[in-house]
Fold:
Amino acid sequence: LDYGERLNCATALLDATIDRLGPDRPCLRSSDGAVWSYGDLRAQANRIAAVLVDDLGLVPGNRVLLRGYNEPWLVACWLGVLKAGGVAVTTMPLLRAGELATMGEMCRPAVALCDHRLTEALERAAIPGLTTVVFGSTGPDDLCARAAGKPAEFPDVDTAADDVALLAFTSGTTGRPKATMHFHRDVLAIADTFAAHVLRPEPDDVFTGSPPIGFTFGLGGLVVFPLRVGASVLLLERATPDVLADAVAEHAVTVLFTAPTAYKAILAGGHADKLAGVRRAVSAGEALPESVWRAVHEATGLKVIDGIGATEMLHIFIAAADDDIRPGSTGRAVPGYTAAVLDDEGRPVPDGTPGHLAVRGPTGCRYLGGDRQEIYVRHGWNVTGDTYVRDADGYFVYQARTDDMIVSAGYNIAGPEVEQALLGHPEVVDCAVVGAPDAERGMVVKAFVVLNPDRTRDVPAAELVDFVKQAIAPYKRPRVVEFVEELPRTSTGKLQRYRLR
Ligand code: 3UK
Structure:
């Protein structure tokens, strides 16, 4: 991947498609039927860049916080910031004032572009020195109104390929978020590795999905990948599984990005037939259980592409598609990346042995200010914090987050495996399994269980323990069960097991 020394990824994403396929190709669709062509998107991004530079005094390298739902203006803002030479700081709509304040303190943005419906938490965050411009309202100071007064052309800032384009925050499954830096070339690299070699989209594809654009899973899948090939994308503001399935059917979607829980919910909701037109379905964010892969395949014929990605790596680096898929494994290293399983000292372990997943390639972890960089980058590898096993064919099989491995009386137990077993019980709707300190065994397996609120009978803990013993090796059974109303999750839907520990 050689992008030369100078590269502005926003220029590259828009101009390449427009030069090849013309400005009139549909680019962004919203559920109300609005369609922005590639030409429309470029013009609006240019106008936003002009507002940033001429009216707000933005200079290259300044950081611009972006806060909005998945809709066309948010994409235009992202591209406008990059065209102006700024650094996009993407945030998720669900974040609250406290979280935004922490992020503001970490990266000190000069400007925020914020959906008019999401200003309250940002105001309460009171980020020092921040100028906020609202978009999507009808006011005269609104970004959309200001942009309307600017020319459709803008001379994109000539950034270096390794200037920072994006600051993305980790999702905080292990505590305080960290800001990761990604270069202009990294943005193209994710399209030219995972998308080009595994996803293989075409210009006529219609993308959609649930992850927010403020999460790099969504930014890649719903912005970078479609734009890189000249495809279009349906942007959904609140893509619950029902909304998602209906939209897929109604808008003839062919490429779908979502998480394992949504695939489960789409099946449970009886929506499988709505996926009939989908050609490529991607699952990431959490491990895709083999049972879910098989159920989706049976109901729809789709072979879901499981892929592991991380904010630190920007996007997916292990995956498989089509006949290369082995259900139950995440897949192989994406072309361009190398992956390995290491012991505590950074030496590769033999195939079949669990160890630390390590990866290197065109993208990689750079924490802002080097903040705790050594946690992720060790022995020349990005160490993701996941325990994996590699088989003799180079397929990687997920075990657990390394912190979620429970060593109990000398046994290594992967918490997620016990959770999958518990979820097989008809009255269990959600659960989380962690290690709890124990004088005799070092640790014991402890399960937090949410029972079906509509159950018609008592479900004693002993019944659940027995159920697990029938499904997996008995030593993995929970020795402590606690019933709870709900489980702590991040804004991207991941369990926060550390809070339960
Ligand atoms: C876990 C998976 C098993 C794993 C992400 C695609 O999830 C993303 O980024 P995050 O920073 O979390 C990273 C961690 O999530 N994980 C993600 N995908 C899988 N575990 N199988 C999977 N398929 O623990 C990883 O270390 O929130 C996913 C693209 C971009 C992303 N940022």
